[in-house]
Amino acid sequence: MRSPEYVQMSTAAAITLGVMGGKMHRCSCTRCLNLLLTYPEGCRANCAYCGLARHREADRDYADRNFIRVDWPAVPVAEIVERVARDGEQSPFHRMCISMITHPRSDEDTVTVLKAWTARIDPATIPVSILSNPTTMERADVAQLRDLGADIFTVALDAATPALFDRTRGKGVQSPHKWEKYWEVLMHAREIFGPRKFGAHIIVGMGETEQELLTLVQQLVDLGGHSHLFSFFPEQGSLMDHLPATPRDQWRRVQLARYLIDYAGVRVEQMTFDAEGRVTGYGLSDAEVERVVGEGIAFRTSGCPGKFRDDVSACDRPYGDSPPSNIASYPFQPNKQDLKKIRRQLKIPVVQG
Predict the structure, then answer these.
(1) CB neighbours of residue 91 within 10 Å
(2) Is the pLDDT assigned to residue 65 strictly greater than 90?
(3) Among 21, 243, 266, 313, which residue's beta carbon has the most beta carbons within 10 A?
(4) Res. 62: pLDDT tops 50
(5) Sign of the dihedral defined by the CA atoms of residues 123, 2, 322, 50, in that order
(6) How far apart are CA 98 and CA 127, in angstroms?
(7) pLDDT tens-digit series, residues 331-353
(8) Between the CA atoms of 204, 209, 214 and 217, what dihedral angle is there, to the nearest 10 degrees?
(9) Is the pLDDT assigned to residue 59 strictly greater than 70?
C-alpha cells in the first residue's frame, strides 16, 4: 500500500468516515479528515520525537507504526473520495488536510491526491489544508497546491528555536531538515496564500522556554500567519520516548498566552516572565484573564478553521497529545468541571458555585 493510491488516516478520521468502528471519549470523533501520505519504505527523515522516524525501519512495518499516539489505517484514496462525495453537504467533515512526509515522491503524490479530491468535492464545501514537507519543496510547488484548490498551507516547525530544531530534526539526528529551508517555504506560503492562510505547528515542552516559544508565536502573527500548538507526549519507539510529557501547568500557560496573542491582540512584549522564561503575567487584568479562561476556547485543540468564519479550529485531533484521563488539547468545549481543572493547572483560584 503506497501513495498516491493509498493514504493513511487518523483513527478518529477513520471512525468518522465509517471505515472502522468505535467512538471517541466525550466527542463525536473529528471534523477534519487527516490524510497522511504513506510508502512501504517509510519516511526518510529521522525526527527525534516522531513515531514514523527512519531509525524505526527494523522495528515494525511502516504502515503499522503509531503516529501522534494513534494508529493510522491505510485506505484507498478512491474509496475516501467516494464516501465523502456521497455524503455531500451532510458530510461530518469541515476540512480535509493532506500531510506530507519526507520521500522523493511526496510532492508529486500530494498533487495527485489533491486532484482526485477536487475532481469530486468542491473545496468551497470542504476546504483543504496542506501540512507540507518544506525540505523537498520550491516556490512553484507551493503555488501549484494553491492553484489546485488548497486554501491553507502550514509547515511543522515543531521545534521553537533553530538550535532545538537542529538537535531534534536536523543534523543532530542525521535528518535532512533545515530551519532555514522551512522558513524559506513558509515565506513562499505567506506570499502565495496570503494573511491567515499560512502557519506553523509548534510542539510545547521539548526543551524551549515558554518565552522562546511565545516569541515565535508573536513572530508568526506579525507576519500575518497563525500557530498550532501540540503538547509534547513521548511517542512510543521514538528517540525521545524516555522523556516526560509536558507538565500541565507549563502547557496551560502557553496555551492561554498563545490564544491571547493570536486572537486577543495581546503582544508577547506585554507579558512578563521569570528567570526561567515562564509566564508570570499575561498583559491583562486578572478579570480579563478570568473571562478568557472561563470561555474555554483557549484550551481547545488549535488548528485550521473549518467551513464557518467563527470556527477557531476544525482540526480536533482527539487525544493526539494526551490520554483522555488527563486531557491536554480539548477536542470539545470544556465544561464547568473541565474549567475547574484547568484553573487548578494554571494555579488560578477555582471559582466556587
Answers:
(1) 20
(2) no
(3) 313
(4) no
(5) negative
(6) 11
(7) 999 999 999 999 999 987 654 43
(8) -60
(9) no
The structural domains of the chain, with segments of one domain joined by +, span 6-346
Residue entry with cell 476556547: 297
Strands 279-281 and 272-273: antiparallel
**pLDDT (tens digit, 9 = 90+) per residue, 245-281?**
999 999 999 999 999 999 999 999 999 999 999 999 9
What's the predicted TM-score (pTM) here? Answer: 0.94
Residue with cell 498583559: 283
Strand-pair partners of 129: 97, 152
Higher pLDDT, 57 or 160: 160
Strand extents, DSSP E, the chain: 6-9, 32-37, 74-76, 95-99, 128-132, 152-158, 198-204, 226-231, 272-273, 279-281
Helix, strand, coil proportions of the chain in percent (round to 5)?
Answer: 40, 15, 45
Cα 174 vs. chain centroid, distance in angstroms?
A: 24
Contacts of 287 (CB under 8 A, 6+ apart): none
* Assigned superfamily of 6-346: Aldolase class I (3.20.20.70)
Q: d(Cα 103, Cα 80) in Å, to the nearest integer? A: 22
